[in-house]
Design brief:
180 residues; mainly alpha; 3-stranded antiparallel sheet; 7 helices; 3 strands; elongated
Amino acid sequence: MRHRKKFNHLSRTSAHRKAMLSNMASSLILHKRIKTTVAKAKALRMYVEPLINKSKTDNTHSRRVVFSHLQNKEAVSELFREISEKVANRPGGYTRILKLGNRQGDAAEVCYIELVDYNENMLSEKTGGEKKRTRRSRRGSSAAKKTTTPATEPTAKSVEAAAEETEESKASDSEEKKEE
């Protein structure tokens, strides 16, 4: 029985799967984004996130543990130098999967898996384009009803100001017609 065993074997032997995930994790760390199938990306996420979490503590033991999984010196040094600094205050969720659709040859679902803190497009949308959002509903809210007051009589000053504006606009319109 395979109750509560949720690891995806990806139709590979154990050695092949470990080597493939190691290579994909190294590529993800070095390039910050790779294109792969959704099943492999989900398996890679489970493989690489504990390694990134381990890189937050920079000591010899954690470097050796990460190296035993990755087997790539450049990827380990990149992980402990740059990536660990960027994710130091993040509690988890270091990767993002962006689905692209189906591959033409075999109709496999393809996606990008990327490190969250390295996507400049999404970071710029977050910081640059912050708009104040208002909640809209079809029924009137109680706050809107409270702020609405009955129509008040226009004051004498506002009536005079409106009259002056209309006179000025009429005068400018007549001048434009004369020029034509």
